[in-house]
Amino acid sequence: QVQFVESGGGLVQPGGSLRLSCAASGSRFSSYDINWYRQAPGKSREWFARISAGGSTTSVGSVKGRFTIFRDNARSTVFLQMSALKPDDTGVYYCMGFEGSEKAGSWGQGTQVTVSS
Asked: How would you classify the pairing of strands 18-24 and 46-51?
């Protein structure tokens, strides 16, 4: 089964930037829509951004204008470039691939992002 693996998290000051990566095994990566989710402390996991297989992107809420998604299919990786980070961005970040409405694999461990001075 395809495993999605997130990396790149860490501790950053408010206003700083981080780039997260979402990597997956298998030959079908380029056909996946990739969704990003985050789980803030004490809250449930929430979707906030997507990049389609064709490269179009969607994001919602407070991340709009601050977070950018792009993909490198040759490396089977999607990147989430986060800028102007706020303490409310703190949480564990996950990614998941979909083919249509079907999940393409299993959840990874996520990567912790902490925004704090």
From this structure: unpaired
Residue whose structure tokens are 């501790």? 11
pLDDT digits (tens, 9 = 90+) for 58-86: 998 899 999 999 999 999 999 999 999 99
CB of 112 within 8 A of CB of 92? Answer: yes
Pairwise CA distance, residues 29 & 9, whole Å: 22
Checking if the pLDDT of 25 tops 90, the result is no
Q: How far apart are CA 4 and CA 2, in angstroms?
A: 7
DSSP string over 2-71: EEEEEE--EEE-TT--EEEEEEE-STTGGG-EEEEEEE-TTS--EEEEEE-TTS-EEE-GGGTTTEEEEE
* Beta strands 111-115 and 10-12, pairing class: parallel
Residues with Cβ within 8 Å of 110's Cβ and at least 6 positions away in sequence, in order, are 6, 39, 92, 93, 94
pLDDT given at position 61: 87
